[in-house]
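STRUCTURE REQUEST FORM
Protein name: Sulfate ABC transporter ATP-binding protein
Source organism: Halotalea alkalilenta
Requested output: structure tokens
Priority: standard
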Amino acid sequence: MSINIDQVSRRFGTTTALHPTTLSIDNGELVGLLGPSGSGKTTLMRIIAGLEQPSEGRVLFGERDVTRLHVRHRRVGFVFQHYALFRHMSVFENVAFGLRARPRNERPSNDEIKRRVFALLERVQLDKLASRLPAQLSGGQQQRVSLARALAVEPEVLLMDEPFGALDAKVRVELRRWLRHLHAELGFTCVFVTHDQEEALELSDRVVVMSQGRIEQVDEPTLLYRRPINRFVFEFLGETNALSGEVRNGHLALGENAGLDLSGVADGPVELLLRPHEVALATSPSAGARLPVTVSAIAPVGAEVRLELEATWSTQPWQATLSHAEFERARIARGTQCYALPQQLRRVDEASGALVDMPLPNQGDDRP
Ligand SMILES: Nc1ncnc2c1ncn2[C@@H]1O[C@H](COP(=O)(O)OP(=O)(O)OP(=O)(O)O)[C@@H](O)[C@H]1O
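Status: completed
Returned output:
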């Protein structure tokens, strides 16, 4: 079922939780609503659910205008952060609940209910635990039961509010992978809320980034990460290194012994952003970039080594990430003094806040 949000807004007294917002979600799409606390994600999801009425605008499921339709008649399934399973019912009965609660003329036979519930429990790999009570399951298993219960009534749209928020990091990662597979198999339309960037980027077909009641950007995860449209999205999606100062005659002077050539950039204030993996380290400056740094911390994290770099030209330390092989080759230790070489630069356009790709400073032949 496709979903069309058409100029939907929501005010609570004098607070605008959601400014007029338009968003189309395709049939079978898995869409993550991502943003900091108070950005309007939950409000938008509750409006899709029918738990909240918009102040203005329309919500369409397919061609059908559901704006004034009660939540009970919208055919949406819910999964919440705290698995609200019925404690006194077995896993089987929890999943069967929605089917048994249907009016008599729509209710499947007992045999049919059993067949459907077991088919779903197999999908969520819990068929062997059908007779257990929720308290006899792990948090991750309980959340899988919640999902099976939500899917049992064959909702047109599945809505999930921080579905894995209460689980520990390792279980979250497992459940994400599992949910992606399940979604690929069953193809339900799904909207979920999260404030966890990694979760949004890993799970979603498209991510909706929100801030202060507005949509900032909607894109596929890889595009979103590579081409954030403004400073907010860039900073929200990952670690950020920033560099700012005044450009004069194509050069950004950063104190006595540091600077960057920015030929073609007009005189005036400039603000540049780059990611930790876009910083290379060298034993000498390049022709166009002289950014001396001192390595102040080293942390191996998974496949990469994260370095913290202190510099006289930046109030915040910079971050750089190297592969383990690069790290070995560079012979870096805490206290090592070297030079940061930007491999990619984006400028924040002062007027619009948009990010503009910049040509790199001349790296010259003296680059080691
Ligand atoms: N029922 C309400 N009454 C008054 N203000 C509300 C109500 N619901 C939400 N708000 C306000 O609307 C804004 C958006 O809230 P919303 O819950 O949608 O944000 P969120 O992005 O989901 O945040 P969180 O991640 O903390 O849940 C906030 O400023 C919030 O205080």
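Reviewer notes: DSSP finds nine helices and 22 strands in the chain. The longest strand covers residues 15-25.
Form closed.
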